[in-house]
Amino acid sequence: MPPQNSAHAPPFRVAMAGVVGRLIRCWCRRAVAGSLKVPALQLHVSKTAMGASQKDFENAMNQVKLLKEDPGNEVKLKLYALYKQATEGPCNTPKPGVFDLINKAKWEAWNALGSLPKETARQNYVDLVSGLSSSSDSSSQAKPEADRKQAEYETVVMTSEDGITKIMLNRPAKKNALTEQMYQEIMLALEAASKDDSTITVLTGNGDYYSSGNDLTNFTNIPPEGVEAKAKNSAILLRNFVGSFIDFPKPLVAVVNGPAVGISVTVLGLFDLVYATDRATFHTPFSHLGQTPEGCSSYTFPKIMGPAKAAEMLIFGKKLTAGEAYAQGLVTEVFPDSTFQKEVWTRLKAYSKLPQNALRISKQIIRSQEKEKLHAVNAKESSILQERWLSSECMNAIMNFFSQKAKL
Ligand SMILES: CCCCC/C=C/CC(=O)SCCNC(=O)CCNC(=O)[C@H](O)C(C)(C)COP(=O)(O)OP(=O)(O)OC[C@H]1O[C@@H](n2cnc3c(N)ncnc32)[C@H](O)[C@@H]1OP(=O)(O)O
After folding, report:
1. Would 276 disulfide with which of 68, 207, 322, 393, CB 3.0-4.6 Å?
2. Does 23 reside within a domain?
3. 301 plus 401 within the same structural domain
């Protein structure tokens, strides 16, 4: 009898257990979005003696793509395992290497099904998807319109009030490190904000950090197509992400509620106002990570602060205090942390009452002269980074971060 449920088995025994969890979450999101054909939890009992037909199975696969709620990592791994068992039979492929974290977790889930017959796996898959679909439907029916709109976002909170649309990064436990999902959601939120009736758009962070920059697990989540494809896709994502700041048509304000790292600092050069708490710091440790500047900072920073100071930040990774960032022109104004939120929002509410079209057109006059140049810089920076991410310097730096965390 094969193990019947890997939910309590320890599939992530490696030292980087926390990392694997994150990797699985990223992978599973792609799977549910439809880029992979996925699968279901192994149930012990089939509903019918006949078992599910191939048609039922195909319907269930389609239903998975339409799920409105994330069923969670364990379920998604089991969906994968049952799908593989139902279509290919018992796992007989070699176990992936210790650093191939995602494929190893998938392999373990599939392998845990042992010799479960294909028909049983197919039925269990159908049963599981059916349970997931009905609970997903009933919970979404109960949601009011506003909740459903917010439900489009998992990693940011988007609100509109007093002529201001606020996009708040919402992974405080991870210092608002930017996952691939988060890049996508920020782009979607910016797109929505550009079309809504608000006057000003604000980006801020929840918790003690503004953002710790790119989530370093993004680089370890390698798809089956390999690392080159990963680097290429990441460069496209980066270019699109930065592009959405370059093209943003309304006044864009950063409310920097705490330390900012990496890409959350570099794109500040594309904002119209940057308000910072005196607790904020501004750090671009690209060289330490074997990486190079992005967010158009190779162009905007020398213009804002002069080449010497830009080099200190972008090449040598000097961390600036809020006061220093203000002195260099990267920050518009610094506020004491104790009154930061009150002062900033009072100011922004007053600004949001100014004539909307005049604000928008003034921004466009200022920014339009630079747009073409900024897009060219963005393309170049993204393509250089695509190469960098494949370098041993970069890979070693990322492994170092996680090995220290995992106390290897
Ligand atoms: C699509 C690809 C586009 C790529 C664009 C490229 C962008 C380049 C950059 O942005 S470079 C900057 C990358 N960021 C970093 O190097 C920061 C790494 N993090 C840290 O150095 C520290 O976490 C810290 C200084 C931000 C905070 O330190 P502190 O000791 O206060 O807190 P913890 O380290 O315990 O952090 C709490 C948990 O959050 C996790 N975490 C924080 N930042 C990141 C991150 N950038 N990536 C992944 N994970 C991050 C941290 O690991 C802790 O997790 P845990 O609770 O599970 O241990």
Report:
1. 322
2. no
3. yes
- The tens digit of pLDDT for each residue in 294-316 reads 999 999 999 999 999 999 999 99
> Is 33 within the bounds of a domain?
no
Res 44: pLDDT: 31
As a residue count, the chain comes to 408
- Mean pLDDT lowest among 308-317, 350-359, 399-408: 399-408
Atom of ligand 1 minimally distant from the CA of 405:
58
Among 16, 19, 175, name the best residue to mutate to test ligand 1's pocket (greatest count of ligand atoms within 8 A of Cβ). Answer: 175
Residue ending a domain, choose from 133, 166, 192 = 133
Return the residue whose CA atom lies nearest to atom 45 of ligand 1. Answer: 215
Distances in whole angstroms, Cα of residue 353 to Cα of each of 197, 346, 366, 370 = 12, 11, 21, 27
The structure tokens listed for 176 are 């608002």
Closest CA to 197 of 233, 165, 223, 174: 165
Residue 4 pLDDT: 34
Is 251 touching ligand 1 by the criterion CB < 6 Å?
Answer: no
Q: What is the pLDDT of residues 330-345, one digit of tens each?
A: 999 999 999 999 999 9
Range of the domain at 101: 54-133
Tell me how far the alpha carbon of residue 404 lies from the centroid of ligand 1, in angstroms. Answer: 12
- Identify whether residues 80 and 210 lie together within a single domain: no
ipTM rounded to 2 decimals: 0.99
Is 384 a pocket residue for ligand 1 (Cβ < 6 Å)?
Answer: no
Residue 127 lies in a domain: yes
Regarding the beta carbon of 238 and ligand 1, being less than 6 Å apart is answered: yes
Domains of the chain: total: 2
Asked whether the CA dihedral 224, 225, 227, 231 is positive or negative, the reply is negative
Distance from chain centroid for Cα 83: 27
Condensed to tens digits (0 to 9), the pLDDT of residues 33-44 reads 333 333 333 333
pTM of the model: 0.70
pLDDT band at 11 (very low <50, low <70, confident <90, very high): very low
